[in-house]
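Interim report, section 4.2 (structural modelling).
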Amino acid sequence: MNWTVKLFKSYIFRRAIRAFITVLIVVTITFFIVRLMPGNPIEIYIGQLMSQYGMTFQEAKNAAAALFSLDLDAPLFSQYLDYMKNLFRGDLGRSFVSQGVKVVELIASYLPWTLFSVGISILLSFTIGITLGIVIAYKRGGLLDQIISSISTVLTSIPNYLLGIILLILLGVQLQLIPVSSMRGTVSPGIKAGFTWEFISDVFKHAALPILTYVLSTVGGWILSMRGSTLNTLGEDFVTVAKARGLPERRITFTYVGRNAILPLFTSLTMQIGFMMGGSALVEFIFVYKGVGWALWSSIGQRDYPVMQGVFLIITIAVIVANFLADLLYGKLDPRIKAGGTE
Amino acid sequence: MRENSVLSVQNLHVVYSALRGTVKAVRDVSFELNKKECLAFIGESGSGKSTLGTSLISLIPGTGRVSSGKIIYRGNSKDIDIAKLSENEVRKIRWKEIAMVFQSALNSFNPVLRIWNHILETAKAHGVNDKEFVQKKSLELLELVQLDPERVLKSFPHELSGGMKQRTLIAMSLLLDPKILILDEPTTALDILTQKNIIELLKKIKDELELAMIFISHDLSIAAELADRVATMYGGKIVEIGPTDDIFYRPKHPYTKGLLKAVPKISGGFEELFSIPGEPPDLINPPSGCPFHPRCGYVEEVCKKEAPQLEQVEGNHYVACYKWRGITDGE
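Predicted structure of the assembly:
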């Protein structure tokens, strides 16, 4: 087989093509959907000019057009072609509202905070969830199982933004346990970035409430899924045979029950990454945590199309990359599933 | 306990707790297993034969437990009552002294581990850490069960067929030279040709190796091929036990007779097939007296009142029935 055929048949290549097409479709859909939203940035700006400076509509429109350097009267389709052309050059355009700022730079400054807070949350939530899930599955029907299962059910049914508001009001306002106002933003002003204790502790302090919100709103789901999955695995014959083989209980719990019970949860883990990136809009808004979610929230309010699209694009890519990594990882974890499957 | 026994079960009772009440799955079962002997337990589903098998290595599923009785295992030096051992003590006996092969051929192995890892971890769990020795021994055993040893050791469970998995499990059961091998329906999940191969294999193991076997099956023809002695179980009790020929050619218990008549013959048509009327007994409220009396054609007043004890017919042949003298051999 020569190398071109090999390349076209290779799993990673086929996956990459599929990912690319997915991105194109998502970009296209978001392009049109954001423009179907009522109102547009220029109308909002023109309104501002007219009311603040008493300009006529035509004057305001001319001023706005000069400023925004785009023509919203151009046919939608030619706008779309322009956008795609720029996209392929890696240019996501410039923000309408923060004039002249490139969307790529904007996102680059917001994204690390979201990746940091969401990443830590997923790790924490998943680890706590599977540990508690397996523990209560072993003690099913007991008091601990009943308490943890009930709490999990309640937590899972509260949306994260509501949980965020509850935390804010309860801990910050009613009980005054935490200094909410100094925890706004991603870092305290005036602190130098670097590997210093001061900076790192400050970063964690600011991220604490979003992380707590994400963890509380997702951990219940992990606990309940892991509990169910463990119960299924405990009933498997290979667990009984492992006992008959005289394997120590620890070995059976980790390698036989735990390892097999986690497998089905990996699919949900990757979906979670997408959900949390998207869901971060409301949580980051509540805590004034300036990540991509916050950027998405404020850009929607101002109809800042390029920024909205940029954020959607980032979320899409995050989901696709996470899925891809999960597939590769899954093949390693479960020998029954070989990546590619053609060999 | 007799001199040449390796296992002696005495007045064993096993119960399960259920919502409706206590299920008396094994009731007052006593038997001895001799060295190098193959003892088969036959009976319909729910007769307690599988529960009996799992109780011998304290692996009764769910809520089950031994409520009374003894399971005396004769180890190298002393006799041990398995029913009294702690979980950790019995763990050391499992597989090393008493190995058990289940019917779940398709799902006996951890899907994420290679066969070699299964073998190695089993050896390690019993303090055998010499990797080379384990490898040599497993190659020999896989050869014995007529598999390609190198290939099997490297394989994941899903890469083997059902028959291959069951052979591998049987080979693995011999890894630590157990004194007793319990086989619970080892051929049930397999197709008929594979069944035949496994039976041939078990015969070979029985002839070549020094171990005693307990064979649990509802398949009478397989039991007849393998066993030296056969015990018929009904309603959690042994109702008849004796040498294989006596049980198959001169059965004395009406239930054993019924079971034998229910086996299709290769020469016969379907019209000859017999089925025992009635339903298996409810083990939460077992029938008074003889458990078989509601379905028995020979029933008398005494059968309903008091349970018959095992009585000697001749030699090693015992039957628990008041009417056995009136039951003729054959038809």
